[in-house]
Amino acid sequence: MTELQSIHNPRLQEIRKAARAGRPLADGLVVAEGPHLLEDALESEWTVVEILATEAAQDRFAGLLDGATGKITRVSERALASLSTTDTSQGVMILLRERRWEWNDLFQRVPLVVLLDAIQDPGNVGTVIRSAEAFGATGVVFGEGSVRVSNGKLLRAAAGSLFRMPFIENAKAGEVRAQLRAHGVRLYALAAEGSAELSKANLREGCALAVGNEGAGLSRELADGAESVRIPTQRVESLNAGVACSIALFEAARQRGQK
User: Which CATH class is domain 3-97?
Assistant: First the structure.
């Protein structure tokens, strides 16, 4: 087996730049890292196109790699380390082609859609996606300005949930509102100064939960016409997006009899 050893290899340089920028490669592939994400990806509808692994990782994760789809390329320890965006690399990088979802995929059953409006913190978004899967959401919409699905920190924070959750990326506000109207879905906006308490909202019917940018809040285009709801707190003015959305999703699951 040929081993890529040089950190200056053109393909490895392209992967390194994409991983650090949190964007896809020129051919649209997404860079992910680690055996756990590989295992989740293999069980999902995403496509594992190529696995880059050190010799040690091939031995350590032989069972996983033997059953993997896609091309396996051996990479030297030094070259693999240069690709890693984590403090300690586990010797496995993955090139994935994401599953393409349509709007209708997000509105199955009784819709419970999460709308992220320019949320840029990948850790917060990863928390939201995990909670969305845990509490029965039917899909996630990444509004314009939100962190990209290809962001490595987001992929790690979502811990595999993104591979299973229907999503639409880079959605314009007008398109979002049109889709919600077309599917008869009510829009609730999470806000510290919401006009009603979250528990009073009817989350048993098809609905979308919108959470705004960490600093600017929800955009006017989405806030207009939305029903604003608040989460009662003590001595704390507001919660971060990940916590607030997780609480709202739990409340939706409780009302729907799932929890």
Answer: alpha beta
| Entry pTM | 0.91
In whole angstroms, give the CA distance from residue 135 to residue 209: 13
> Which token pair is 255?
């009302």
Residue 25 contacts residue 18 (beta carbons within 8 Å): yes
pLDDT bucket at 2, cuts 50 / 70 / 90:
low
93 close to 152: Cβ distance less than 8 angstroms = no
C-alpha span between 242 and 232 (Å, rounded): 16
Task: Give, as one character, the DSSP assignment of residue 100.
Answer: P
Plot region of 248 (φ>0 → left; ψ -120 to 50 → alpha; else → beta): alpha
Looking at domain 103-255, its CATH class is alpha beta
Residues in contact with 202: Cβ distance below 8 Å, sequence separation at least 6, in sequence order = 186, 255
Based on C-alpha coordinates, what's the Rg of the chain? 20
